[in-house]
Amino acid sequence: MKLIFTGLFLFFLHTTYAQNDFIVLQKKGRTIQRYFAGNNISFYTDEGFLINGNIKKCVHDSLFIDIPITMDIHTIFGIVPDTTGFTYYKININKIALIPAKRLSAAAFGNAAVRAAVLTGSILLANKIDFPDNQNATYALQFFMTAAINVGMAFVKPFKTNKPTGYTIGHKYKLVFMHVSNP
After folding, report:
1. 12 within a domain of the structure (yes/no)
2. 68 assigned to some structural domain
3. What is the mean pLDDT of residues 81-94?
4. Residue range(s) defining the domain that contains residue 96
């Protein structure tokens, strides 16, 4: 019994020292998101590069990000993308310009609405096609017409966005480095 209590004591003692530095995204002093070591993060640098990765650690106003390297691997089933390794990227939080938001922009909503309307209209139009002599030709034409319009609509974007939506770091949004491990 003493061994069990000693093990629990050591476990809780270890977790009390498990505080790490982290970064807080704030809007006018209110916290929107916290980024700890182990969290995934996606951001644009001030040079315009998109960085996606896993935060390894936060030290002295810098993030160390673990970025996976993916390559196409040839297998018996074909070519498959696979993670072949990891690389580290260090960036100061002052170099982060924009953190993409998980919200839907008006342009993306408009594009989805136009696609849905065109696809619905094309399906209704394709169902009006009828060859009374050959029913198989009718089904084939309806299928290929709907598939072609669906593929064509995947590339049509009537509403364009000039920049990605998200939290632009600057006057309204700020990244604050929280020093927890170094009082």
Report:
1. no
2. yes
3. 83
4. 19-100+164-178
CA separation, residue 108 to residues 30, 72, 119, 120, 154 (Å):
28, 30, 16, 18, 13
Residue 5 within a domain: no
DSSP secondary structure letter of residue 39:
-
Cβ-Cβ contacts under 8 Å for 51 (sequence gap 6 or more): 41, 42, 43, 44, 45, 65, 67, 89, 91
22-27, strands of its sheet edge to edge: 30-35, 22-27, 173-178
Burial of 96 (0-12, 13-18, 19+ CB in 10 A): buried
Asked if residue 36 lies in contact with residue 55, where contact means CB atoms within 8 angstroms, the answer is yes
pLDDT tier for residue 183 given thresholds of 50, 70 and 90:
low
Same domain, 39 and 71: yes
pLDDT tens digits for range 158-179 = 887 766 777 888 888 888 888 7
61 and 110 in a single domain? The answer is no
Span 22-78, pLDDT tens digits: 888 888 889 888 888 888 888 888 888 888 888 888 888 888 888 888 888 888 888
Q: Which class for 58: exposed (0-12), middle (13-18), buried (19 or more C-beta within 10 A)? A: buried
Residue 127 is assigned to a structural domain of this protein: yes
